[in-house]
Amino acid sequence: MEDTASQPSTRLQQLGRTLQSSWRSVVVGLPFFWLLLFFLIPFAIVLKISFAESLIASPPFSTLLQWGEDGALNLRILFDNFKFLAEDELYLNTYLNSLKVALISTIWCLLIGYPIAYAIVRSDPATKNVLLMLIILPFWTSFLLRVYAWMGLLADQGTINSFLIWLGIIDEPIRLLYSQFAVYIGIVYSYLPFMILPLYANMEKLDMSLHEAASDLGAKPITTFLTVTLPLTLPGIVAGSLLVFIPATGEYVIPDLLGGGNVLMIGNVLFNEFNSNHDWPVASAVAIVLLIVLVAPMMLYQRMQSRESAAH
Amino acid sequence: MQKKRSTFLFSMLCFGLAFLYVPIFILIIYSFNYSKLVPIWGGWSTRWYTKLFESPEVWEAVMLSLKIAFVNACFATLLGSLAGLALVRFGRFKGRTLFSGMISAPLVMPEVITGLSLLLLFITLSQLIGWPSARGFTTITIAHITFSMAYVAVIIQSRLSGMDESLEDAALDLGAKPFRVLLDITLPILAPGMLAGWLLAFTLSLDDLVIASFVTGPGSNTLPILIYSRIRLGLRPDINALATIMIVTVAIGVLLAAWIMWRQDKQRQRDRKLAAGDSLKHDLDD
Fold it and tell me: Which CATH class for the B56-233 domain?
């Protein structure tokens, strides 16, 4: 992106320069100011409160800057909340469980999504458009309702249990809803299109003649796949995996509706800490730690995106 | 061997599509169930649809959600387009790195963090300057604009970087004023991207539960908040009916939009072919 932006044709630079006087500052200024006020400053506030102390007051936290008894301004930064998170096993386990659930779901999305993306790329143009439409369509429908659909399928008297009983495979309903299994299903189901679309975009640019060359030269399909296809589709795999892994780690709705409190994930702990326990400083600290955990994958994704648009 | 592999791919494709669509179809079928207990079939009926339309709560939530989605989509399209234009066409400017970081961060930010941070901002602001005095329509709309504009900016950026700059060049060559070029050439080319961005922003807003739950106040229930509060306690036949209406509406809308775009594409291709044929004839005449 840096590259395309830094070298537009000279005339367009002139266009930009002429607009500079007043328009330029408006064009940059409006979105810039908006993001500063509603994106950056809120983070500063979360960071600030994460260093404060929980109080029963309104607002329920202490101020960082205080006038000391000697009349000097004291900066009080408390690491208590972070120490609390580190020492309480509940939080540590929740973070680890969130990462585990997100990771396993990402692998499942990849295993299911990869052959699907590949099949779409290989189909003829007319079918391709229809298939792509079918993959994108669920993305436009309500996320909440798609999760709700699985509540009906997985319930004790739900479709899957009734079907299995009807088949005679089981005599009594098995517990599917409100379990870790249900959470996996929900995440894989909701995020599958996010895996398929980047994979498809990547595969479509591939040169299929490499494939033919490999098999012409006598490579077995599995060898061709491992030595040609897989390395070439790695950017798509990474992009798709990040698009599933990052939101899945902080997921709130799916563990709440399908896990029913039996599956602890960090999004739920944060939500409850804030809304039920009214412990703002701890909730803020939970958010900051989640952000630190996710900052590496998030930066990786952004780097990939900007390289992608630079290649355009 | 080749054949075996394509059988595998074909069955994975079928499995994938079944996985995506069967749950939705079952949800729709059960919305026509007479029984009060969702999973137990009690014969066909449309009584949950009638019941749904009688509930004023649902109507209020629908109206609030649509209002928020509309205002959000307009502002997000404006701000996102400006941001995309600035990032692609302005070269380097002061604070560009911070700007591009801030514009793309909401795309990958976990919703709980965005929600929490915006709520804390609104609370801090109301203590400092007394605004916002109550949370609801305004605060939810502001929160939605903040993440929707990022999506619009991405669409506009990709549209602008794929755009043929020679058109703007030609117009400038022929003596058009830069502002005219912006209005007459850049904007029409951007229009489909802006429309796509508007639609995406609208849908994202209608869909959001987590961020809205954080920044809403008492009495302001958007549709997802209302649905969520009902299904937390289990399955509800009226929600199946509501879900069916929403899913069918969206599906028709998306398919219609896709069809219109497909037809325009066809038309454009035909025009191009005709134009090419014309110029060929001219060449021959010469």
Answer: mainly alpha
Domain total for chain A?
A: 1
Residue A138 carries which side chain, given as an amino acid letter? P
Provide the ipTM: 0.87
In a domain, A31, yes or no: no
Q: Which amino acid is at A221?
A: P
CATH of the domain at A164: 1.10.3720.10
Q: What is the pLDDT of residues B25-37, one digit of tens each?
A: 999 999 998 888 7
In a domain, A4, yes or no: no
Least CB–CB distance from B90: residue in A16, A250, A270: A16
User: Which residues of chain B make contact with A46, given a CB cutoff of 8 A?
Assistant: 113, 116-117, 120
- pLDDT at position B187 is 85
How many CB atoms lie under 10 A from the CB of residue A100?
13
Please give the Cα distance from B16 to B84 (Å, whole number): 35
Contact B207 A137 (CB under 8 A): no
Show the domain range for A202. Answer: 80-311
DSSP, res A73:
E
Q: Which residue ranges of chain A lie beneath pLDDT 70? A: 1-21, 55-59, 62-76, 208, 309-312
Residue of A nearest to B80 (CA): A31
Asked whether residue A13 is assigned to any structural domain, the reply reads: no
Residues contacting A172, CB < 8 A, separation 6+:
A165
Q: Which of A158, A267, A301 has the CB atom closest to B39's CB atom?
A: A158
Query: Which residues in chain B come in under a pLDDT of 70?
Result: 1-5, 279-286
Residue A300, domain member (yes or no): yes
